[in-house]
Design a protein that fits this description.
alpha/beta; TIM Barrel; seven-stranded parallel sheet; two-stranded antiparallel sheet; 15 helices; binds coproporphyrinogen I
């Protein structure tokens, strides 16, 4: 969850040298350096590739920009006719610099630090493509997806094809695990959950496993509450990231018996630091640390987080043992 980013001075320095955020993602030398920065500083057990979920719309032919202070800005998809512009066949060529970054990072990382590749899940990527950026209510995408079901399904097909190729190529370049971010899965109406979240994710998981059977895939479907168990069974992911809505005790009882879990300290605790952070982190470690578990945040690091808190958190996690 955002190991790199604006809370790190060394990230801000390299970011300022790049000609925009996408340029940073597509310049292997710089992207590799910002991937490695948090590893050098905090020594976690895994690195996550520096890239973004919106490189997929960019690769297939949509205009994508990142505006300082606003976030992502895309020329929105407004009708089925817009889909003719998109070509999933362009994915591998366009994203070749990302695969180069993966190889460089893998070569430079210590052997015992795993490299995690990632992509956005189709629903979450589609929200940016149709809304034209971040959204609060997802009204444009939801009304389009309901009104024009066939067009929406065709867009999901494009995203499934492109994302599958993208993830397989990351593994070929050196990624040892993959994570699928479905950050906005919680906005999907219950009756559309199978079609908009489960099925596209299941098709990507099956497509990746057909070509890379051994790579573990972590699903992160944020805000789906009680549908998480159905998500695990329906998608075939090997592990899940937890958002902050579940306690460690609940996750140990309900989710860990099905699969390994990753999570789930709310980034607000990292921002506050001190005893509150320590207590919340220990609660998670005590609750989940005896089973298959990856300690992580429940969501991305806030840009105003002091990195000394991240340092302290890494220490707490490393020092924890099941008997402490
Ligand atoms: O320099 C900057 O502008 C910093 C902000 C930033 C960073 C560091 C963005 C813009 N993307 C990233 C990198 C990123 N994004 C990573 C790389 C790993 C790392 O840095 O540790 C990853 C895994 C992502 C994933 C991502 N991008 C998600 C899913 C995870 C999540 O946070 O829920 C989403 C939704 C995005 C879209 C995105 N990228 C950036 C912004 C500002 C946004 C929009 C977020 C929103 O709509 O709220």
């Amino acid at each position: 969850m955002r190991q790199a980013g604006r809370y790190l001075p060394e990230y801000r320095e390299i970011r300022a040298q790049a000609d925009g955020f996408l340029d940073l993602c597509y310049t292997p030398d710089r992207a590799a350096r910002v991937t490695l920065q948090p590893i050098e500083r905090f020594r976690p057990d895994a690195a996550i590739l520096f890239s973004d979920i919106l490189v997929i719309p960019d690769a297939i032919g949509q205009e994508v920009g990142f505006v300082e202070g606003t976030g992502p800005v895309l020329t929105p998809v407004t009708s089925g006719a817009d889909l003719a512009k998109f070509d999933p066949g362009k994915t591998l060529d366009h994203l070749a610099p990302v695969f180069e970054t993966v190889s460089r990072v893998r070569a430079e990382l210590p052997d015992d630090v795993a490299l995690i590749g990632f992509a956005g899940a189709p629903w979450t990527v589609a929200t940016y493509m149709v809304e034209g950026g971040s959204s609060r209510d997802f009204n444009a995408i939801k009304s389009w997806a309901v009104r024009e079901r066939a067009d929406f399904a065709a867009m999901m097909d494009i995203l499934v094809a492109s994302t599958t190729d993208y993830l397989v190529a990351q593994v070929e370049a050196g990624a040892q695990a993959l994570q699928l971010f479905d950050t906005w899965a919680g906005a999907v109406p219950a009756n559309d959950f199978d079609d908009w979240v489960i099925s596209p994710t299941a098709r990507i998981v099956a497509g990746v496993k057909a070509r890379q059977p051994d790579v573990p895939i972590i699903g992160f479907a944020r805000g789906i509450g009680d549908r998480l168990e159905g998500y695990i069974r329906g998608t075939g992911v090997d592990a899940v990231g937890l958002d902050a809505s579940m306690t460690a005790t609940e996750a140990a009882a309900k989710i860990q018996p099905i699969c390994p879990v990753q999570g789930n300290l709310d980034p607000a605790y990292l921002m506050v630091g001190g005893e509150e952070m320590e207590r919340a982190a220990r609660e998670i470690l005590d609750g989940l640390g005896k089973g298959p578990f990856v300690f992580n945040l429940a969501h991305g690091i806030h840009k105003d987080t002091p990195f000394s808190h991240v340092e302290r958190l890494a220490e707490i996690v490393r020092e924890w043992s099941p008997n402490s």
